[in-house]
Amino acid sequence: MSVIKPPVLQLFTPGPVAVLPAVAEAQTWSMINHRGKAFQSIYGPIRTTLAKLMACSEAHVMTGSGTLAIEANVQAALPDGGKVLVLSNGAFGDKLNEHCRLYYNAEKKGGDTRFIRLKDAQGWNLARAKEHIDQAAADGYKLLAMVHHETSPGILNKIGEICPYAKRMGMLTLVDGTSAWPAYPFNQKQMGVDFYSFASQKALGMPSGLAVVGLCEDGIKAVDAAPRRTNFMNLKEYRKNAEKNEHPTTPAVTLLYSLEVALDLYEKEGPSAFEARHAKMAAHIRSRLSAMGLKLVIEPGFESSTVTAFYVQKNSDVSRALEGTHKIKLGGGHADWKDTTLRFCNMGDVDMARIDKGLDALEQVKKELGV
Ligand SMILES: Cc1ncc(COP(=O)(O)O)c(C=O)c1O
Prior knowledge:
Blueprint: E1 10-12, H1 21-25, H2 37-54, E2 58-63, H3 66-77, E3 83-88, H4 91-103, E4 112-117, H5 126-138, E5 143-147, E6 149-150, E7 155-156, H6 159-168, E8 172-176, E9 195-199, E10 210-215, H7 217-225, H8 235-242, H9 253-269, H10 271-291, E11 307-311, H11 315-326, E12 328-332, E13 341-345, H12 352-369
Parallel strand pairs: 1-12, 3-4, 3-5, 5-8, 8-9
Antiparallel strand pairs: 2-10, 6-7, 9-10, 11-13, 12-13
The structure holds pyridoxal-5'-phosphate.
């Protein structure tokens, strides 16, 4: 066959994102066997570092995309007959509902998944979630599942208010943080999150292919008690193999090299500086989009530091012109906002200068198309 290389574009996408050169380069390091000392000496510190940074009891790295880690958590959370409350406000909350429904439904010993959906890019906070949690707890629901950063329009849900309350009401908590970590302040224990997960190709700025599960003590107890519903994404197997710092199956070794480098760079920058840098970029994007007369999708108070959706007429034409003429790729509209918005994202290898170039190009295209 002939080898086809991908186009070179500046990505302002919701993931995969532009990868930092040092992180990409690590993927060319020598291959090693995934059993034995060389591998253990790499994977052990990765797990310890992740658990420290996420403030969870255990971190496990899985080969696959964000969905794998979400489903690994969902399938381990409750016994058959378990009942789940899902709070959604976008495409990924809706998908989380589908994952939960697969394992917790009437056919599975009378289980259930209750789905509550906000519209219009409203964010979840405790004031909005409380009545649903109270009712669910009274009805015997044992798990609250929700998304940390809803990527479809870029909403930061206030899990730090909601999850501790759900725990006080006797529920376990499961959070899809696929596009959140490490762009937002996060302390899994303090935030009352029993099961968390994120993916490599988002805020951490790595290639796609790895997903991380973070477990706190109540999550671990649930994993140990869960029935065996899967072989590949079985967290019991991950826990057992982690005792010798190995994986149950063959992991993506070179992606783990990239993860080492990405975590090292992140630690050197420091969590607060990393969060502040992303928040500053996103504030700049919001302010320039508004100055161009483009209306933002997000409800004030729930702003994302990484994904900014804005309404624009002829969104596909704008996107095509940016890609064709300016070699710039924005995120398309998604879910409720598919036909009316685009997303300007700032994750991975981006900086203010590149963001301004991207916004200048958007301004020019907007004028040319008269939108
Ligand atoms: C919040 C959220 N959850 C889940 C997913 C699915 O992740 P993946 O495509 O890596 O499986 C995404 C992907 O964009 C996401 O943003």
